[in-house]
Automatic annotation (TrEMBL):
This is Retrotransposon hot spot (RHS) protein. Residues 227-299 form the Retrotransposon hot spot protein,C-terminal domain. Pfam families: RHS_N, RHSP. Residues 112-214 form the Retrotransposon hot spot protein N-terminal domain. InterPro entries: RHS_C, RHS_N, Trypano_RHS.
Amino acid sequence: MDVVIQRPERFIPDADLREMVLSLPECQTYALVYRAVPLLEGKGITSVRRWGGADENADAKRAVRDELADDGLWNKTCGLLDDAFNAAKDAEASGKVGKSDSEAAKVIPGAFESVVNARWSHVLSGVADKPLGMCVADGLPTSVWSDAEVDVTPAPEPAENVDDARGDGLELLVLTSAMGWPYTGFKHGEERDVFVRREMVRVWHVVRSEVARWPDDDTMFRPQPYVLVGTPGIGKSFGCGSYLLYELLHYDAAKVPAVAYFLDGSAYIFHKTGVMAGRVVFYEVARAAITAMRHMANERREALV
């Protein structure tokens, strides 16, 4: 084939037959290699990258076209190289996005176990032989606030919101994670203790009631969003957010297979099931975490079909 392309007149004397043969796709490709490529290389276009876009290397391309003196072959050359250049550019862009997403997402070793296995303790009052009559005891108290005690809508007047005396001296609960919490970036030396007050337990009861009504299959539904309102600095994000995370991680994994914690434009995803079970993935960009969650939802629906 290559010999025919180099000297077609000698091997195909008939002009009509020669034109028909040379117009075949196979011959066009050989003609491109033996006629166009050397001319391109002579003008410094030695790769698809050097070919450039439509507005690049205009003088070199014009010179090759003039030397080639074959509009049909030149059009094919331009078409092939333009397509190859655009494909390479798109692949490079996709690679950068993929690399960016992978670099922005990283597993936090030990974070899942630290939160799931967070240690409980509680503060008691009315202890006569302790400073201020208070002490810290390990574990959960014998009786934590009941649903009836916490599921009370606060009255508008502060004086009416005084907690009823329980008689057991329970003031608040303390939840300690050895590595800290997402709010503190799981950084060594940061705050590890979360103080859980009665109001936070009430928030969990509201969330738990909402999750309980979620379907057990892939039926489409619209979950109820909630906004926690309160004075800045009272522990909405660090305190209540961390406590809700702990409770959701202990909720039925069949209904809540993963929990996402969003913070200042970034996000953590706690995986309870699947190949990533027991791992926490941190995403520098929250959008990447949302994309990952959509993939997880699609995979879950496919698994349930």
